[in-house]
Write a structure and sequence with these properties.
Order of helices and strands: HEEHEEEEEHH
Strand content: 25-35%
CATH superfamily: Hotdog Thioesterase
Structural class: alpha+beta
Largest sheet: 7 strands, antiparallel
CATH class: Alpha Beta
Distance between the termini: 29 Å
Shape: elongated
Number of strands: 7
C-alpha cells in the first residue's frame, strides 16, 4: 500500500483531515491482489497516519525547544468487519490514558455514512529523547494537555515513575 506516511496520504484523492482524525476513501491500489478488502497491515498503516496527524497537531504544535519523539510500547487491534475497496471511512482517535512518560490512544475505524465499526486499535506510546536515546517525561504543557484530553471514565493515570531508559537503550542498540 502506498501511501504509508501522513504527507503521502494527504496527497491522495478522497482524504480529508478533521478535528479528531481522518476521512479516507479506500483506493483499489491499497488492496492486496486477488482480494476486495483492506488487509490488517494496511489498516495499521492508516492508523499510523492518523497517529502522525495527532502527533503533529496535539503534541508537536505545543513543543518549542525540547527534542521529543515517541516509541510504541504496545499495540492491540480488533478487526471487526471488512473494509471494502471504495469504502469511505473515518479514523478517529482519543486519548484514553496518561502516565508519567507515556499515554494511550484509541483509534476507531468506522464506515463514514453508517458509523459501522470496522476496527479498534489501541496504541501505548512512551515519550523518548532522540538525542539522549532514553525514555523521558514530556514537558508539563504536554502532560496538562494529555490529562485534560483524556476521555471520560476510561482515564488511566499512574502516579508511579517507570524508568524504561535502560530497557529502551538496550532495544535500540
Amino acid at each position: 500500500m502506498k501511501p504509508i506516511t501522513l504527507d503521502l496520504l494527504l496527497k491522495q484523492e478522497g482524504v480529508l483531515c478533521k478535528e479528531s482524525g481522518l476521512f479516507v476513501t479506500i483506493h483499489p491500489s491499497w488492496i492486496v491482489t486477488g482480494e476486495d478488502r483492506l488487509s490488517y497491515t494496511n489498516i495499521i498503516r492508516l492508523v499510523e497516519c492518523c497517529r502522525e496527524y495527532h502527533w503533529n497537531n496535539d503534541i508537536m504544535a505545543k513543543i518549542t525547544e525540547t527534542p521529543i519523539d515517541s516509541i510504541t510500547k504496545s499495540i492491540d487491534g480488533n478487526f471487526i468487519t471488512p473494509i471494502y475497496v471504495g469504502s469511505q471511512i473515518s479514523i478517529t482517535y482519543k486519548i484514553i490514558g496518561v502516565r508519567r512518560i507515556g499515554y494511550t490512544l484509541k483509534f476507531e475505524i468506522c464506515q463514514a455514512d453508517t458509523y459501522t465499526l470496522h476496527a479498534v486499535v489501541v496504541l501505548v506510546s512512551v515519550f523518548y529523547d532522540p538525542l539522549g536515546r532514553k525514555a523521558i517525561r514530556p514537558p508539563d504543557l504536554i502532560m496538562r494537555y494529555l490529562s485534560s484530553a483524556c476521555a471520560g471514565d476510561s482515564v488511566l493515570k499512574l502516579d508511579t515513575e517507570i524508568d524504561l531508559s535502560e530497557t529502551l537503550a538496550r532495544e535500540l542498540k
